[in-house]
Structure formats: structure tokens, C-alpha cells
UniProtKB/TrEMBL annotation:
<comment type="similarity">
    <text>Belongs to the catalase family. HPII subfamily.</text>
</comment>
<feature type="region of interest" description="Disordered">
    <location>
        <begin position="1"/>
        <end position="26"/>
    </location>
</feature>
<dbReference type="InterPro" id="IPR029062">
    <property type="entry name" value="Class_I_gatase-like"/>
</dbReference>
<feature type="binding site">
    <location>
        <position position="379"/>
    </location>
    <ligand>
        <name>heme</name>
    </ligand>
</feature>
<feature type="binding site" description="axial binding residue">
    <location>
        <position position="372"/>
    </location>
    <ligand>
        <name>heme</name>
    </ligand>
</feature>
<feature type="active site">
    <location>
        <position position="158"/>
    </location>
</feature>
<dbReference type="GO" id="GO:0006979">
    <property type="term" value="P:response to oxidative stress"/>
</dbReference>
<keyword id="KW-0560">Oxidoreductase</keyword>
<dbReference type="InterPro" id="IPR024708">
    <property type="entry name" value="Catalase_AS"/>
</dbReference>
<dbReference type="InterPro" id="IPR018028">
    <property type="entry name" value="Catalase"/>
</dbReference>
<feature type="binding site">
    <location>
        <position position="368"/>
    </location>
    <ligand>
        <name>heme</name>
    </ligand>
</feature>
<feature type="compositionally biased region" description="Low complexity">
    <location>
        <begin position="1"/>
        <end position="10"/>
    </location>
</feature>
<keyword id="KW-0349">Heme</keyword>
<dbReference type="InterPro" id="IPR002226">
    <property type="entry name" value="Catalase_haem_BS"/>
</dbReference>
<dbReference type="InterPro" id="IPR043156">
    <property type="entry name" value="Catalase_clade2_helical"/>
</dbReference>
<protein>
    <recommendedName>
        <fullName>Catalase</fullName>
        <ecNumber>1.11.1.6</ecNumber>
    </recommendedName>
</protein>
<dbReference type="Pfam" id="PF06628">
    <property type="entry name" value="Catalase-rel"/>
</dbReference>
């Protein structure tokens, strides 16, 4: 550490540092790479290429402490990956409340709209190992560490508002079932295997979560385009000690969008880092991802008014019953400097709360309160992980915990106990009265029992609500996902058990899922006869909830969307210009994709710069595709299998496609013609926009294309099954 860095590290961040307080603290630990090379003891290294030998061709000497230090450090570079959520990507940013929440909570970071609280946010997949692909079908983690002036507050959530199980006791079983099977360690980052479905088909409480996991929520287009949820019910406590139950939501500015399943699988091979890259690039380009924090609040005395148990993590509170109030915004505006030091070493814990926020008795949450510190001790090598730069609170922290592996704090003085008269009593006081954390004094009359509450027994009503709330295309995707996963099973009895359970959600859904699986018709009675089956239906009048759908979410913009402009020799470059300008001024990024790097020659012999090739940036890397005019260009594109596949695949994945003039030939195998009807989300400009006579016509084409992209995907596009891509 340089003296400047050391001074910065020792400086206590102040509230007035706002969102920079964490950045300034981290700066104290950050190192640039320009200094002379030394050993870890500071000794200048004379030669970083050759070890010390007995003669130039002789054996290496044990004495070579420089070599040994380097190799030894290398040998110990790896730490265990997280038991779940091993693969993740993170970013820095800030949170700002819209108006004081003092009526409900005394949490300091939720009082002052002028205050920006620094945050570090990590997104993750759950089942895959650290090096697995981003776009697998899975739940996503959404962990937010708020560095508040009252200590760190961690909101460790997921992108799905419910969970597979109701009690922490079942978590190791769930994770063992979904992880690669223990005898041969397959499959990686996938739930489509026997052990997972064996387990969940025996646990009907998982049905609601399975509906979400089989929906497009589990294959997000981007971390920037997914919701986050605290899942459990928590409590807000105000300065009078009054409690409201609270559910947390993160609502993405860009809407909630998914990939096509075929696309997600292909991306996993072509760019395993798809979501990581997307997040990184958006932040580098200044397109800072943004979410609004929403809360659903239920007064303490209304705990039992919803018809289901607030403590049951397999239930959500429909927004129609309790509206989500947007109370602040989260902006991610800085990429980490070092993946290991920050993204890997960050340690979240749902038990990291601040005054004004407290727990409920949700038995899943209660189990989590034990697990997270415990797991960091083995993952990060000891009890002092809170001293790692990324984990340090920005407010002062001190107590009499001492020593342990990798301790960094040098605690001065004679005493390491409390109470004492030998140390400075005032500095180490116990602060219950003035702002110290007070647990909500909930009254309990507990007989000691190892049992599940009967109020947790309805396993299907909300699964049905979720399914009923989907658009027709989203329902089709859910059916297709169940079919895909269950087709991968080797044991037909597990498939059967699962569709029998689904018959309790919706008969038709179960029948559709079962159809291609080579099993019998779904048998609801058989499911009801199995151990563990419960179906105590709650009184619910709600048939559907619009908030559970993904379609038509977002701000209607095409900001940060990626558009491919497909070129070959002979395309008409003039026809591209007005559309490209319109796309870019609407905030999209355009890339010219051609048969080779360098340039292609336009119809008028102009050179068009190519950004990427069809092979390295296939259609699955884009949100939409634009095919320019030009007779020779259209022939060249149609005769190139990769280019043709590019357009057909984009079409099959329901993306917006715009063809200009002769470019429509690339859609001829689909029966699309310049003067005929066009499928949803396809824009066909009959002649090159530059020849349309007036600029208004060109703008109109561009606007139609922008509107088609803004819809994200045209999932109801007819005939995509027949497209050979
Ligand atoms: Fe976690 N979970 N979890 N979990 N979880 C971990 O903690 C655990 C649960 C979630 O980006 C582990 O530091 C138990 C629900 C996220 O670093 C571990 C139970 C939800 C992350 C652990 C649950 C989550 C974790 C592994 C049931 C959504 C990634 C490494 C009782 C609300 C945090 C670690 C990050 C990570 C335990 C259930 C979210 C083993 C025992 C429900 C986002 O401690």
C-alpha cells in the first residue's frame, strides 16, 4: 500500500461522502500495477523469467525463495466456490429513497431523499459451478449490500418471489437434488435430470416455484431486465416500535424480458459469459442499469387477513391485494476493479440488518440466518471476512471479538472484554437505548414442536394463479419447458408423478405436458394419495394477476438493445443510414455483421466497415436484425448459409426483423413478400428507404422497426415451429 493509499484506508468514511464513501474506502486498498516488481516482502526482483539453478542446465535450487514464494502463492490461489450461487457478476452503485419512510421504518438509509447510500450488487445463477454458463434455466440471485451509516444491510433475494421449500430443514436435500448427480457429476447447471424431479415431485410444496422456474423468468435476457424479490416477509419497525410486515421488490426500468429457450441453450455455447458481458458493457457504456425498490406493507394486526400465511415462502402477496409502493431507486454505475477481491469475496447475509428492519418467523428465513455466516467461514477461510475491503462497513465498527485467521485490525489496549474499567468505557458502550438494534418484541406462546403449520398446506392455489395470469405464449413456454425437462428423465415414474401433481394446478396444463412424454394420462387422485400431499385450498377470489406476466413490461424504449445490420458485398449502404440513425438515436447499439472482418463493398462501391462476422456474432447475440436493400447484396446474403440462418433464426426466436427493398428475399422461404401480409414484428420496406420520395416515409419505417423492437419479442408469431433454424 502506498502512503496515500494507507491514509485513505485509515480515514473513516463520513455520511457526507454519500455514495462515494465505499469507493473512497476501497481506494485505500486498491493497487495500480506500475510499480517495480518485488517479492511480498518488498525485495526487488532481479529476473522474473529464470529460476536459480546449479549451472544454466542444472537442477533448480531449493534456496530459490523468490521462485518458491511465487509458486506457493499460485498454489493457493483458489478458494472454495459458493455452495449455491457460485457463478455471479456484480457492480457498484447507489440507492436513494424517494421520500422519508419514517412512518414505517427508522432505517437511516430510508429517511432522507438527498442521501445516496453506496451499494454492491451481485447477480448469480444457483445450481451451476463458478465457470458454468450464464443463460441456463435457473433461478437468479439478486443480492444487494447497502453500506449504510448504521452498518451493512443485505437484501439477499432472488428473481422469483417464492421458493421451492417451506422449511430450512429441506434446503440441503433440495440443493443435493438439483446439483450434478453425485456418482458422475452430471449434468452441469441444469435441473433437467432425475434427481431434481424425483425430489420436487415428492414435495408438492415446490409446485408454485416450479411454475416460475419453467417460465421465461428462469432464462432472463439480461440481469438488467429481471425483477428481484426479498421472498420472505420481513418487518419494518418505526421509531415508536410499531411493526409492519413487508415484502421487498426490485422493479427493473427496462422491463422484464426473457430469451427463447432454444436461444438460451445456444448462447450457453457461443458466449457462456452472456449476462456478465451484458452487465459489464452496459455500465462501461454509461447505460447504468436501474431498478425501483417497491414494498408491500401489511400492518401487524392484519397478519391473518390475506387468506394464506405470510410466513410461508411458497406464497406471494398478489399486487392486486396489496399494491407495491415504489420507495426508491437503485443505480449501478461502476464495474468492480477486481473480480476476485470484490465479486468473489463479497459475503452476503440476510441477517445483516439495520435498526428499522427485522425478521419474520418464516422458517426458511430463520434457517438462512444461521447459514450465511457459517458458510463464509469455510469459503473465505476464517471468521474475519468482514474485514475484507468489499465487506467492511463504512461506519465505524468495533467490539471485543479478537484474533482468528487473517486478522487485520490492530486493537490497541489492555482489555478485550466488557464490562471493564481498564479500557475506555465510553467508546465501547452497549448502545441499546440510543439507536442500537432492538429486536421486535413479538409475543410468543410457543410449545416446542417439530411440525409444519397447517396454514402452510395449500400447495396449488397460487401455482394456478400464476399459470392463469400468463399470456397464451407464456403458457406455451411453460408447457414446453416442463416437456423438455421431463423428457430428459430416465425414469418414467418420476415424469408420471410430476404430471399427476400438475393436474392439481390445471388439468389441461398437465395433459399438455404429459402428451409427448410416453406416460399415462395425469392422475390427480394418485397424486392426492401420496405421502406429503396437501391441498387445503385457501379462499381466493383472484383469478389472475397482471403483475405476474412478463409481456408488455418496461418503459417502451429500445435503450441498450443490440441490432445486427446484416451486410455482404452489393448491399445498398444508403438505405441503411436513416434507419440506423433512428435506432441509435433511440439508444440502441448497431453492429454491422458481415462474411469477413474489414470491409464489404456496397452497391455504389462504397466501403462498409464490418464489426463482426456471422460466425462470431450470430443472431442469438442480438435483439433484432436489419437487412438492407441491394440486388447483388440480397443474392450474396441468400447464398451464404450463415447469413440466411442468421435471419431465419432471429425470426424463429420471435425477434424484430426489418428488411429493406430486395432484403426481403431472405424471408422468401417463409412466404414473406414485399407486397403481401407480414408476420408480427416483421417490418418490410418495399423499396430502399432513400428512394421512398420523402423523408417522412423513411422515418415511418424506422419508427415501425423501433416499435417492433420495443415489444422485445413477438412470442405470438405464427409458424415458427416450421422454421429450419
Ligand atoms: Fe441462499 N445461500 N439459502 N437463498 N442465497 C447462499 O451463502 C441458504 C435462499 C441466496 O451473491 C449461501 O454466501 C439456505 C432463499 C442468494 O453471494 C448459503 C437457504 C433465497 C445467494 C445459502 C437458502 C436465497 C445465496 C451460499 C434455505 C432467496 C448468493 C454462499 C434455508 C431469498 C449470495 C453464501 C451471493 C447464497 C444458504 C435459501 C438467496 C449456503 C440454508 C430463499 C442470492 O449460505
Amino acid at each position: 500500500m502506498t502512503p496515500r493509499n494507507r491514509a485513505a484506508a485509515n480515514r473513516r468514511p463520513k455520511a457526507s461522502d454519500g455514495p462515494n464513501s465505499k469507493q473512497q474506502q476501497l481506494a485505500g486498498f486498491t493497487q495500480e500495477g506500475a510499480a517495480p516488481l518485488t517479492t511480498n516482502q518488498g525485495l526487488h526482483i532481479p529476473d522474473n523469467h529464470n529460476s536459480l539453478k546449479a549451472g544454466v542446465r542444472g537442477p533448480t535450487l531449493l534456496e530459490d525463495f523468490i521462485l518458491r514464494e511465487k509458486i506457493t502463492h499460485f498454489d493457493h490461489e483458489r478458494i472454495p466456490e459458493r455452495a449455491v450461487h457460485a457463478r455471479g457478476s456484480a457492480a457498484h452503485g447507489y440507492f436513494q429513497v424517494y421520500k422519508s419512510m419514517s412512518q414505517f421504518t427508522c432505517a437511516d438509509f430510508l429517511q432522507d431523499p438527498a442521501q445516496k447510500t453506496p451499494v454492491f450488487v451481485r447477480f448469480s445463477t444457483v445450481a451451476g459451478e463458478r465457470g458454468s454458463a450464464d443463460t441456463v434455466r435457473d433461478v437468479r440471485g439478486f443480492s444487494v449490500k447497502f453500506y449504510t451509516q448504521q452498518g451493512n444491510y443485505d437484501l439477499v433475494g432472488n428473481n422469483i418471489p417464492v421458493f421451492f421449500i417451506q422449511d430450512a430443514m429441506k434446503f440441503p436435500d433440495l440443493v443435493h437434488a438439483v446439483k450434478p448427480e453425485p456418482h458422475h457429476a452430471m449434468p452441469q447447471a441444469a435441473s433437467a435430470h432425475d434427481t431434481f424431479w424425483d425430489f420436487v415431485s415428492l414435495m408438492p410444496e415446490s409446485t408454485h416455484m416450479l411454475m416460475w422456474a419453467m417460465s421465461d423468468r428462469a432464462i432472463p435476457r439480461s440481469y438488467r431486465m429481471m425483477e428481484g424479490f426479498g421472498v420472505h416477509t420481513f418487518r419494518f419497525i418505526n421509531s415508536r416500535g410499531e411493526s409492519h410486515f413487508v415484502k421487498f421488490h426490485w422493479k427493473p426500468k427496462l422491463g422484464i424480458h426473457g430469451l427463447a429457450w432454444d436461444e438460451a441453450q445456444k448462447i450457453a455455447g457461443k458466449d457462456a459469459d452472456f449476462h456478465r458481458r451484458d452487465l459489464w458493457e452496459a455500465i462501461e457504456n454509461g447505460d447504468f442499469p436501474e431498478w425501483e425498490l417497491g414494498v408491500q406493507m401489511i400492518p401487524q394486526d392484519k397478519e391473518h387477513s390475506l387468506g394464506f400465511d405470510l410466513l410461508d415462502p411458497t406464497k406471494l402477496i398478489p399486487e392486486e391485494l396489496v399494491p407495491v409502493q415504489k420507495i426508491g431507486r437503485l443505480v449501478l454505475d461502476r464495474n468492480p476493479d477486481n473480480f476476485f477481491a470484490e465479486t468473489e469475496q463479497v459475503a452476503f447475509h440476510p441477517g445483516h440488518v439495520v435498526p428499522g428492519i427485522d425478521f419474520s418467523n418464516d422458517p426458511l428465513l430463520q434457517g438462512r440466518l444461521f447459514s450465511y455466516t457459517d458458510t463464509q467461514i469455510s469459503r473465505l477461510g476464517g471468521a474475519n471476512f468482514h474485514e475484507l475491503p468489499i465487506n467492511r462497513a463504512v461506519c465505524p465498527f468495533h467490539n471485543f471479538q479478537r484474533d482468528g485467521m487473517h486478522r487485520q485490525t490492530i486493537a490497541r489496549g489492555q482489555v478485550a472484554y466488557e464490562p471493564n474499567t481498564l479500557g475506555n468505557g465510553s467508546e465501547y458502550r452497549v448502545d441499546g437505548e440510543s439507536g442500537g438494534f432492538q429486536s421486535f418484541p413479538e409475543e410468543l406462546e410457543p410449545p416446542k414442536v417439530r411440525r409444519r403449520s397447517a396454514s402452510f398446506d395449500d400447495h396449488f392455489t397460487q401455482a394456478r394463479l400464476f399459470f392463469n395470469s400468463q399470456s397464451a405464449a407464456e403458457k406455451d413456454h411453460i408447457v414446453a419447458a416442463f416437456r423438455f425437462e421431463l423428457s430428459k428423465l430416465e425414469v418414467p415414474a418420476i415424469r408420471q408423478r410430476m404430471v399427476d401433481n400438475l393436474a392439481h394446478v390445471d388439468e389441461k396444463l398437465a395433459r399438455r405436458v404429459a402428451e409427448p412424454l410416453g406416460i399415462g394420462v395425469p392422475d390427480a387422485k394418485a397424486a392426492a394419495g401420496r405421502p406429503g400431499f396437501r391441498d387445503h385450498r385457501m379462499a381466493s377470489t383472484l383469478e389472475e394477476s397482471a403483475a405476474l406476466r412478463m409481456v408488455d413490461t418496461g418503459d417502451g424504449s429500445i435503450k441498450t438493445r443490440k441490432i445486427a445490420i446484416l451486410v455482404a458485398d452489393g448491399v445498398d449502404s444508403a438505405s441503411l443510414k436513416p434507419i440506423r440513425e433512428a435506432l441509435e438515436s433511440a439508444g440502441a447499439t448497431c453492429k454491422v455483421v458481415g462474411p469477413r472482418l474489414g470491409t464489404v463493398a456496397s452497391a455504389s462501391k462504397r466501403q462498409i466497415d464490418v464489426d463482426a462476422t456471422y460466425a462470431t456474432m450470430p443472431s442469438i447475440m442480438f435483439d433484432a436484425v436489419l437487412v438492407p436493400a441491394g440486388k447483388d447484396g440480397a443474392i450474396a446474403l441468400s447464398q451464404n448459409g450463415e447469413a440466411l440462418h442468421f435471419v431465419l433464426e432471429a425470426f424463429k426466436h420471435c425477434k424484430a426483423v426489418c428488411t429493406v427493398g430486395e432484403g426481403v428475399q431472405l424471408l422468401s422461404s417463409l412466404g414473406v413478400k414485399a407486397d403481401g401480409p407480414v408476420p408480427a414484428g416483421v417490418v418490410v420496406a418495399p423499396t430502399p428507404v432513400t428512394n421512398l420520395g420523402d423523408n417522412t416515409a423513411a422515418i415511418e419505417i424506422a419508427q415501425r422497426f423501433v416499435a417492433a423492437i420495443a415489444k422485445h419479442r413477438h412470442w405470438d408469431r405464427a409458424g415458427i415451429e416450421a422454421v429450419p433454424a
